[in-house]
Amino acid sequence: xxxxxxxxxxxxxxxxxxxxxxxxxxxxxxxxxxxxxxxxxxxxxxxxxxxxxxxxxxxxxxxxxxxxxxxxxxxxxxxxxxxxxxxxxxxxxxxxxxxxxxxxxxxxxxxxxxxxxxxxxxxxxxxxxxxxxxxxxxxxxxxxxxxxxxxxxxxxxxxxxxxxxxxxxxxxxxxxxxxxxxxxxxxxxxxxxxxxxxxxxxxxxxxxxxxxxxxxxxxxxxxxxxxxxxxxxxxxxxxxxxxxxxxxxxxx
Length: 252
Description:
By secondary structure, the protein is mostly helical. The protein has 9 helices and 2 strands. A two-stranded antiparallel ribbon has the order 1-2.
């Protein structure tokens, strides 16, 4: 319902950004050399990372009804994010050479990335302020509960920022951001099922059907990767091609 509303579209982009970040990160960890890991991170993982917070901010603006007042701030958030993405692709001032940790290769952020992180945290704070204002202003109980669940979900999801520690200070703190993201997704799913968040109505059998469909796709891809890995482990091109095709299949 209401597929064209800004709220739903912004949440869709947020989910796509999280998927790109987490899916591509697996290939970074599994890379057999730092050059391959760097290619994966610069082109795919970082693209997902830079889109997360602008999408969260856009969602908060749409939820609070501040789109007209804050549209330039939304635009500025995306412009800043993609500026850093282009710098990451064309220079070594943003993403440095990966370091090998016990979980795999992990890139090192350069000093210029602190400006990106500053905008990252500012957008998150602004998003939380918007949601809190919307929560205080809302009078319909079910809507109020929906917004409160969004606030809690994003606060928990924000703990995924711990992933930045190993990138900035080279401290071997395991990046458990995927766990925070999983909890975030579970809370959002609960909000949709229990409180009809985003005006989406769903039932349990649809969720079960989705899980089964996902398994039908994921299992063959995993087996294919296990079988094809010896062939492509020394080829960056084959790894990129396999990763892109797998991501497209998962998305479709």
